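Reader question, answered in our methods column.
A reader sent in the components of a multi-part assembly and asked whether the whole thing could be modeled at once rather than chain by chain. We filled in our standard form and ran it. Here is what they sent:
COMPLEX SIZE: two components
ENTRIES:
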Amino acid sequence: MTEITLTIDGKQVKGRDGNTVLEVCEANGIYVPTLCHLRGLSDVGACRMCVVEIERERRPVPACTYPARDGLVVTTHNEKLEKYRRQVLELMFTERNHLCPQCVATGDCELQKLAYKYQMDHVRYPYSWPALPLDSVNDYLVIDHNRCILCGRCIRTCDEIVGLHTLDFGYRGWKDRVVADLNQPLGTSSCISCGACFQACPTGAIFSKNGAYKGKPEECQKVSSVCPLCGIGCKIQALTKENRLIRIDSPDLAAERGILCNRVRFAPLYGGDERVRTAMVRNDAGRLQARPLSEAMSTVARKLADLKRRYGSNSIAGVASSQCSNQSLQAFRELIRETIGSELLDTLDGDIYRTIIKGTQDFQAKVGLTAQEASLEEILKADCIVVLGANPLATHPVAGSYVARAVRHNKAKLIVVDPLQNTFPYHTTLWLKPKRNKELVALNAICKAIVDRHADKQSVSTKAIAASLVGIDAKRGSREASIASDDLAKAVELLSTVNCSVFIYGDGVLRYKDPALITSLLNLATVCSNKSKGRPQVICLKPRGNSRAAWDMGIASSSQSVVRSLGSNSVRGLYMLLADDDVDAVKFITLGKGLEFVVIQCSYRSRAVTKASVVLPSPIWTETSEEYTTLDGLARSASQLVRPPEGIQADSETLREVSKQIKKLESSTRRR
Amino acid sequence: MAKVKVATIWLEGCAGCHMSFLDIDEAIIELTNAVEFSRSPITDIKEFLPVDVGIVEGGVGNTEQEEALKELRANCRILMAWGDCACFGGIGAMRSSFDREEVLRRAYIETESTQDGKIPRPPAVPALLDKVKPVNHVVKVDCYVPGCPPEAQVILYALKELLAGRVPVLPSEMMRFD
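And here is the structure of the entire assembly that came back:
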């Protein structure tokens, strides 16, 4: 792009060809007021706040849509422009209900700030007073059309950044308003409640139910952190007041992984389930009784040391949730592996880990390629996306939004392979519905058909895959999986003509715990990787937020299922580190036939708590400063947003203390 | 020098602006050296006498308020609007999105705790206007002090400007709508 020179307010400034006048102003630190402009969105010139004068233009023009050219002479501020801007503000204030005292956004409103700036102390025009409805059907968000200035930032955010295009304008003229889908309440529309529109709204037209009236930004503390919930690792910025979460935003909506989802943006504001607030020890009468944490930790250490002495190290098993932080997992490994010396260490999602490892090893052995997972951003570069047994919009919404964006804006093709659900009804190019339990047959059939089609120009890896598929008949396979031959042909056509495909799989594939399914998925991704250097581009939507770290750190056992070994009588003690995972752990405890002593370290009073011998309290993720790893392997470090309830310490501290006490008990027994 | 005569009224407002004015604390002593209060809720003088400065709190929501405002305007040289209600309509104007009869019905008949309600319409009760208007939509206003309520120091600033012979325009940093 070539450099251009403009004269703005009498100063020579540089810009680039293709910039708008506003972009040149912003790049050169020249202030121009804006309302409908938001960085990262296309500009529409709706609000007329950024009007500037340009030599040889008959009238003021919006800077946000006016293309900068070499030699332009621009005036951004003079009496006439200021008068126009004030007039525009007055018109906006009279159009609907913009009375600040009773508005949720007062003190945090761009319209209000501009009114202050332009000293708008009264309005000269008559008010319209339209009685517009208020949409409060959504769980987290309210749209108050009376506060809307029709800047369209929410609509463009929903379309351009989120990729869903749930919101748009409805009606015409002065009845114009923001509608969801075909004018449905937001709560029943295709909205995923990601809240990006709420963040983009310059006024109080879209607001959060549980954040409203709780504190203005100026009264709050601001903390930057990271969300550990699903493994995408979105950066967040929280506002807190008196140790309460008021609002969670993305530091930059337009950045990578910038939109957030309702699990982090809104759910933490609601407090959640009943917390475990103290340590509890089961008394002689068989009742759980609140005890001081130090006493409960001593009980745990004594009991575990006792079990180890009587039955050996492998009589104690440790199972952690992969929702836990790196620090907690490391301390847990130290306790179980090193202090107790047990080999029985696993995660709740260990079975899934072993499935993937086995499937990947089989693929590598056969095809000779390493199968590394692709980064999420590859979705945005792909021209074909295959979603297998996954519902990213629900489980990993930001990944789901990437898929939607790739389809809407990059014209990528989307193939969904799922017998039951497709959360991308408006984006899908082809939906294959193999019979349940026949996904493997379906994948192999498609893979075989593609291999056959390109039999003449096969790479080394494709040849290896072809060899492994000998004996498979594509037509028979697709019939068995009940995929119509038309659909099979379409899939083959699509997959063999694209340049760069990304495969996303999740729970619907993983729940079979079948390594062969992983292998065939990798096979298919490899034969479809025409231009991606022959490497399969695969993304696994892992079951828990820190699964990747738990697996990489070796917390998940690569060889045996500890949960299954609970069934043998030899396991007498079980230590479960659940932290704030909402998993139902009861089923694991009831498996243990010979269990004498069960420790549960957790944040919430789940059913599992009722089965414990000792309960140790955990903080939740917003209460700790710890590290996590994203599902595609990036390191993320979270900061404490609020203090935990009195008497609750970090999981790693509790685990280390128990470890220390066991060591102390053991050394004193040895001395005796 | 003769004292500047000031009259204040409060229309469809909550008295918050007048209360905020009293929050200027000891500055009121200095002020009363230069100012004499005529009709005002503070002095409890009822009749309108010619004054230099008229001050209005509240929006215009019924016929009595409209009349009082016009009378004040006719009797003052400079008219100053205090607070969001006078400047923009404010809290009272929340009813403006609804039909007048609908508002009365809601208040006197449909309220959850009301039994056998009736809309009172004795001739002595002034009729509601269709909409609650800001003061400048009824009479000419010379200066504005928005805020809900305006801070005491901002009110004081505006009064001091007037005493210095200037018509005050609040600088941006003194502007507040809440």
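What stands out: The two ends of chain A are 81 Å apart (CA to CA). Chain A touches chain B at residues 93, 97, 99-102, 106-107, 112, 115-119, 121-124, 126-127, 129-131, 146 (CB under 8 Å).
Send us your own complexes using the same form.
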